[in-house]
């Protein structure tokens, strides 16, 4: 750039007038921001985004119906822009809720995911008897009738099998134990033994057990071998697996 050109450029810059906001304009912008914030705060708490449908997952204990009702009732008092876990936790009167998480579905949906520590067995006897979950963690006494018994907290295999059982079936189980040569064996109160073997594929094994028990052809069987959940085998005393 030549000296003359540079001189003309600098003179041009001096002629540029920087536009400054007036106090009135600044006040107007501030007012607009305040109005927008107030409008959002009103909107996030309004019925326009109120929760109308609550879906509860992960609840399966003896008081599942009560817990689900409490969560649905509390959820419908919220909005999808103002839902909080703490309000749901305060609304539930169950000692077996280990955690709650939520997800919202604008404009009217709410999903509540519950993580439970459910009692699946009683360990010990008399005054030393405790309720435990499938991981062997002791829980407040549930007063739940007909929980299965496990002889020791160290029998983690039996506790894992009971922890994977459909909760409705626990009342029909008398006890569970790890037995030499057969792995975990579940003793039904009125029915055959369920031989689980290892702790692998427990959901499939329980699914197979329910299917065999529902089959009239298994009536009179004294055991159901679930070691291979794809080929469950029902038999009588003296047969293979006893």
Q: What features would you highlight for this structure?
A:
Ubiquitin-like (UB roll), 5-stranded mixed beta sheet, 31% helix, 3 domains, 6 helices, 4-stranded mixed beta sheet, 242 residues, Rossmann fold, alpha/beta, elongated
CATH architecture of the largest domain: 3-Layer(aba) Sandwich
**Helix/strand order, N-terminal first:** HHEHHEEEEEEHEEEHEE
The rounded distance between the terminal residues' Cα atoms is 101 Å
Number of helices: 6
> What structural class do you assign from the helix and strand content?
alpha/beta
Q: How many structurally independent domains?
A: 3
For the largest sheet, list the strands in their spatial order: 8-9-10-11-12
Radius of gyration: 32 Å
Indicate the CATH class of the largest domain.
Answer: Alpha Beta
Portion of residues in beta strands equals 15-25%
What is the multimeric organization of the chains shown?
single chain
Biggest sheet features: 5 strands, mixed
Which range best describes the helical content: under 10%, 10-25%, 25-40%, 40-55%, 55-70% or over 70%? 25-40%
Q: Which spans of ≥5 residues are poorly predicted at pLDDT below 50?
A: none
Globular, elongated, flat, extended or rod-shaped: what is the shape?
elongated
Tell how many strands the DSSP assignment holds: 12
CATH topology label of the largest domain: Rossmann fold
- The averaged pLDDT comes out at 88
């Amino acid at each position: 750039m030549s000296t003359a050109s540079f001189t003309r450029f600098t003179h041009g810059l001096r002629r540029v007038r920087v536009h400054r906001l007036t106090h009135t304009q600044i006040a107007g912008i501030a007012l607009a921001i305040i109005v927008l914030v107030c409008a959002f705060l009103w909107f996030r708490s309004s019925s326009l985004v109120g929760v109308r449908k609550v879906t509860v997952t992960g609840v399966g204990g003896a008081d599942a119906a009560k817990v689900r009702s409490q969560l649905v009732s509390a959820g419908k008092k919220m909005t999808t822009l103002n839902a909080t876990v703490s309000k749901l936790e305060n609304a539930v009167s169950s000692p077996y809720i280990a955690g709650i998480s939520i997800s919202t579905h604008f404009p009217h949906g709410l999903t509540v995911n519950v993580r439970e520590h459910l009692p699946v067995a009683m360990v010990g006897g008399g005054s030393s008897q405790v309720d435990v979950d499938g991981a062997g963690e002791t829980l407040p006494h549930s007063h739940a009738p007909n929980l299965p018994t496990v002889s020791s907290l160290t029998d983690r295999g039996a506790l894992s099998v009971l922890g994977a059982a459909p909760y409705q079936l626990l009342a029909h189980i008398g006890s569970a134990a790890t037995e030499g040569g057969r792995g975990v064996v579940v003793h039904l109160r009125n029915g055959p033994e369920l031989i689980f073997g290892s702790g692998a594929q427990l959901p499939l094994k329980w699914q197979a057990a329910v299917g065999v028990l529902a089959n009239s052809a298994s009536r009179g069987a004294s055991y159901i071998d679930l070691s291979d959940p794809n080929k469950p085998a029902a038999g009588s005393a003296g047969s293979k697996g006893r």
